[in-house]
Specification:
By secondary structure, this protein is an alpha+beta fold. It has eleven helices and 22 strands.
């Protein structure tokens, strides 16, 4: 204050000390405002930057460089910027690092290694803002590319998953012509922990439900909140029962009913994740992910953030879910299995992934799966409506898979509307929103 008075008393002749004080006060006010604004901006940058760095740290914890690696080479195809891409999602039954409560009901201590009961391929189209998911039942018979001395020339699609997904990726591409760009591997612990971190998921049960094998026990109907333990039990349920008309009814569809329940679970999980903005909840969610979820190292952090921004408004009800068409069959060496049902399967694949040879579309399979007669004909050519069939595919005469390969040109078939195979199962729960 004394310094201020001294300066004012030395104002130039004819000058007004009052105006000088006002000018200096105005300059000082503007400086204070400017400094405050800079501090706020720096603070915001620090917060955003800190969130970015923390998210990056958590993201690196779930990356796994071995998921796409086979023999020192990457089997995951590089993405084309702005074009659709495919993510292979594998449900692993690995019991590593399971909480005690979950380990007890999954026979954790007695189960070594890992198997895959869930094989889903997500087709993401950033341009259209759409997501489709194709489920391949675990009992689907495919042509194997390796380990034939152990598993035979043909076997269930998941037999080569014991050592990781890289060989499974090549098997899918060779059998169906589906190019895989990324891999997500989900274990029991990661699934249950992620649900708990989000505060649970909401599912609407039309009937009370029970599965003694997976420990699912839903005594009441209606839209209700499931915790991680219950959500895992629902996703795992393969012996599902529902109480209707005074009695317990068994879901005899096995894997097919479970695939539908898993798709409904995914919708509920997306709903739960989209509605959470609390930093503590997000932190808990990111903390749980490394306990059972792994992503291939080719999936970049900035790419993931871009997808989050692109699909933030995605409505999970629009998630198009498909199940690969199959027919039941029997093999002397494998027992009851499923064979790919053509031409329905190829029609579905084309409707999801695009025609063979188009950008981002299917490729020509190099090792097609066997049919019910044991032959391995190439998939039929799916043409536009109005096309005519110019050739037919032949099949072998054996009742079990053999090494016979058909060399006859594939049949041409006409495709109409996309084949949507989601259901059927009115007894299954669906994703819901609390009132």
């Amino acid at each position: 204050m004394a310094l201020g008075r001294s300066i004012d008393s030395k104002s130039p002749a004819g000058g007004s000390s009052t105006r000088g004080r006002r000018r200096r006060s105005g300059h000082r006010g503007r400086r204070i405002f400017a400094i405050t604004a800079i501090v706020v901006v720096i603070g915001l940058i620090a917060v955003v930057g800190g969130a970015y760095v923390y998210g990056y740290y958590r993201f690196k914890a779930v990356q796994n460089s071995t998921l796409c690696n086979l023999g020192g080479k990457s089997v995951c195809a590089a993405e084309i910027s702005g074009k659709p891409f495919n993510v292979l999602a594998i449900g692993s039954d690995s019991r590593v690092d399971l909480p005690p409560a979950i380990a007890r009901v999954t026979d954790g201590p007695g189960q070594a290694g890992q198997r895959s009961d869930v094989v889903k391929i997500f087709h993401v189209d950033p341009g259209k803002g759409t997501i489709s998911v194709l489920s391949i039942p675990r009992d689907t018979v495919v042509t194997l590319l390796a380990n034939q001395s152990e598993f035979g020339d043909y076997n269930r699609i998941n037999v080569n998953y014991q050592n990781g997904p890289s060989l499974l990726i090549k098997t899918i591409e060779a059998n169906f012509g589906i190019t895989i760009n990324h891999v997500v591997q989900v274990g029991f612990g990661g699934l249950a922990g992620a649900v708990d971190a989000l505060g649970g998921i909401w599912m609407d049960f039309p009937y009370p439900a029970l599965d003694n094998y997976s420990s699912l026990d839903i005594p009441h109907t209606g839209c209700q909140l499931l915790n991680g333990f219950q959500a895992l039990a629902l996703a795992r349920s393969r012996h599902y029962q529902y109480f209707e008309n005074g009695q317990w009814n068994y879901d005899g569809t096995s894997d097919f009913g479970r695939i539908d329940r898993q798709n409904q679970f995914l919708r509920a999980l997306i709903d739960a994740a989209k509605s959470k903005y609390n930093p503590a909840t997000i932190n808990a969610f990111l903390t749980e992910l490394p306990k059972g979820i792994q992503i291939d190292s080719q999936f970049g952090y900035n790419e993931l953030l871009g997808l989050v921004a692109e699909f933030h408004g995605f409505n999970p009800a629009t998630l198009a879910a498909y199940t690969l068409p199959t027919v039941s069959g029997y093999s002397a060496s494998l027992g009851d299995v499923l064979f790919v049902d053509q031409p329905l399967a190829q029609q579905m694949l084309v409707s999801i992934f695009g025609q063979v040879g188009t950008t981002g579309g299917l490729t020509q399979p190099t090792s097609p799966p066997p049919d019910v007669n044991g032959a391995t004909p190439p998939p039929p050519v799916v043409a536009t409506p109005g096309a005519t069939s110019t050739s037919t595919a032949t099949t072998g005469s054996s009742g079990t898979p053999s090494s016979t390969t058909s060399t006859t040109a594939p049949a041409t078939t006409t495709t109409t509307a996309p084949l949507h195979t989601e259901p059927w199962y009115t007894f299954n729960p669906v994703a819901c929103s609390p009132k």
